[in-house]
């Protein structure tokens, strides 16, 4: 009898593991392929060879690039080189990406930037918020952009127990922001287990110097986060659920879900066109290729444009798609005055004129 019970439990466990494995393949879209959608006026950006995971553009056309992101188990084309912040002036005729100097005292050797966001104060001071993973830790760094010196002055390092696995950030004040945790756990093994079992424990946290709180939860992998031009809504990309969540922002900074847009791809970072409110999304048509790198079968890239997301029937357009022959693992797309910048998790970056 005891052996029969043991065999029954073993069979149930194996069946559950098998079901979770098949479900994970579906969430990763492990069989996903992409049909090429080309843009005519594009070229690779010199100086970006090992990823530009996120991009933020100021109203004056200055674009910040988060480069050199590294993560355990994820491919890197420059594993021994620290990350950095690059800048490009999109108003210049001859475009070039230059690395910004960071003030003394900041640990550059362990700089591992991830998601970024900007905030312009009433006195026109520009703040740059950077998710950082020094030695696999989780912090948000706040910098002040010094335009005359073309450098970043480090203001503050934000650490908190509610930031176990920070992915992206959207600034809403000079020291205030929302941040996504793509996992509930910080331990790498527990992260894999959390993903495998699809626990949906990822969340969004609001931070201010006076208050830190979870304001939204129940995500599979909370990834990119952004804010509508009127600042009434927060948008969150749930990567493995293939969804974009629209959350209404309240005066107490709490969030309530307004709607969910379901897509057929893994969604990464979100960028907003300030003039139209359109959402530009860096996507991964096949997540397995992204996480299990094969140079002979590289991850593809896909950029979506979402118009009128608050309506009953938003318009979703594939603006760019490539099988990895040009661009591998697109993670972000940002627009400025008819100019499109596309970044990747660990590959090159693309500039296109629309």
UniProtKB/TrEMBL annotation:
SUPFAM superfamilies: Calcium-dependent phosphotriesterase. The active site is at 114 (proton acceptor). Ca(2+) 1 binds at residues 53, 116, 167-168, 223, 268-269. Pfam families: Arylesterase. Glycosylated. Residues 1-15 form the signal peptide. Glycans are attached at residues 269, 323. It catalyses: a phenyl acetate + H2O = a phenol + acetate + H(+); an N-acyl-L-homoserine lactone + H2O = an N-acyl-L-homoserine + H(+). It is a peripheral membrane protein. InterPro entries: 6-blade_b-propeller_TolB-like, Arylesterase, Paraoxonase2, Serum_paraoxonase/arylesterase. Ca(2+) 2 binds at residue 54. Binds 2 calcium ions per subunit. GO terms for biological process: response to toxic substance. Its EC number is 3.1.1.2. It is found in: Membrane. It comes from the Eukaryota. GO terms for cellular component: extracellular region; membrane. Disulfide bonds join 42-352. Keywords: Calcium, Disulfide bond, Glycoprotein, Hydrolase, Membrane, Metal-binding, Signal. Its cofactor is Ca(2+). One of its GO terms (molecular function) is acyl-L-homoserine-lactone lactonohydrolase activity. Homotrimer. Belongs to the paraoxonase family. This is Paraoxonase. It comes from Trichechus manatus latirostris (Florida manatee). The gene is PON2.
């Amino acid at each position: 009898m005891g052996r029969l019970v043991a065999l029954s439990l073993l069979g149930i466990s194996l069946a559950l593991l098998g079901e979770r494995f098949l479900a994970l393949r579906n969430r990763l879209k492990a069989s996903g392929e992409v049909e090429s959608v080309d843009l005519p006026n594009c070229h690779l950006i010199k100086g970006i060879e090992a990823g530009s995971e996120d991009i933020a553009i100021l109203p004056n056309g200055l674009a910040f690039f988060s480069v050199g992101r590294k993560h355990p188990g994820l491919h890197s084309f420059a594993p021994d080189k620290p990350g950095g912040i690059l800048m490009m002036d999109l108003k210049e005729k001859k475009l070039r990406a230059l690395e910004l100097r960071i003030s003394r005292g900041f640990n550059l050797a362990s700089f591992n930037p991830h998601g970024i966001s900007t905030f312009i104060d009433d006195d026109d001071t520009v703040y740059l918020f950077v998710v950082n993973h020094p030695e696999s830790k989780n912090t948000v760094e706040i910098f002040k952009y010094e335009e005359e010196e073309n450098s970043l002055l480090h203001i503050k390092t934000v650490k908190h127990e509610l930031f176990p696995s920070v992915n992206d950030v959207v600034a809403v004040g000079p020291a205030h922001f929302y941040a996504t945790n793509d996992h509930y756990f910080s331990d790498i093994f527990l992260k894999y287990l959390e993903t495998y079992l699809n626990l949906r424990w990822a969340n969004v946290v609001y931070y201010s110097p006076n208050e830190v709180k979870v304001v939204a939860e129940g995500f599979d992998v909370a990834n990119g986060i952004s804010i509508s031009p009127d600042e009434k809504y927060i948008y969150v990309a749930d990567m493995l659920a293939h969804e974009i969540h629209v959350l209404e922002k309240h005066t107490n900074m709490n969030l309530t879900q307004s709607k969910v847009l379901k897509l057929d791809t893994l969604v990464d970072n979100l960028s907003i066109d300030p003039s139209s409110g359109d959402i530009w999304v860096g996507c991964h048509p096949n997540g397995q290729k992204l996480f299990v790198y094969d140079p002979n079968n590289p991850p593809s890239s896909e950029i979506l444009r979402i118009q009128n997301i608050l309506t009953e029937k938003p318009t979703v357009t594939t603006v760019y798609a490539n099988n990895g022959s040009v661009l591998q693992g697109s993670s972000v797309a940002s627009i400025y005055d008819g100019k499109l910048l596309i970044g990747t998790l660990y590959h090159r970056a693309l500039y296109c004129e629309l």
